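We read letters as residues; the fold follows as tokens. Both lines appear below.
***
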Amino acid sequence: MDAGDAGRTRHQQNRRTYFSAGDYDSTHFPLNIANPDYDEAYDTDSVLGSSGGSKAHQTGIYLQDHLKFGEFATLTLGGRYDWAEASGQKDDAFSPRIGATVKLAGGVNAYASWSKSFLPQLYTLQVVGFDGEGNPIGGPVPPERGRNIELGVKFAPDGTRFSGSLAVYQLTRQNVTTSDAGYLDFSVVTGEQRARGIEAELQWQPIGGFSLNFAYTYTDAEVTKDNFFTVGALLSNIPRHISGLSRSTSCRTARLPD
């Protein structure tokens, strides 16, 4: 058994300044959407603006160990710990990762992986209350957490011109934010979303320098837990079926002597 260790630290820092203004009382702006009158005078006395700024930084430590069992199997164990802070909000989490591959035959390998993810949402605010004039008060949003499971096979059999992969996966995300329809400067935190499906890729190279590539993805994405959206509702902008067929060519040129 062979083993290899790896470690890494990453730090990033962001700064931003902003100016915002708004008035959420619709009676001050009686615009008829069906028949708008753009010459109508609007009451802008209640529009209040403010400026501000913020600073965020995130530090992560990565650790990984790669174990090789002869020529037939590998095991990868890894983890990452993150610290994030912005405007007094602090988040930290540990995200583990496990992966394994097994050789089934010449040019054919099966693999499996399980991992968790952490995404701080430091610049995102949600409505947590209202002031005396009815204006929304923003509060921090919890970090997004994810969990991904994937099983698959990759193949490039010896003596053939075919290669490709086939995989099944499930990705679960918690604390996903979407735009707040009532207050455009804020977000709504959903409960849980899940996407699972099948991915397939196939490449055929009949001659050197030319190949045909086919890819297909089936995705079933829906809301699984929520107090705001309907459980079982499909997620927007995620197609159920994606397929593609392409060709690629390459040529090699020889440089003539001067």
In short: The chain is about 0% helix and 65% strand. The chain has a mean pLDDT of 84. The longest strand covers residues 48-69.
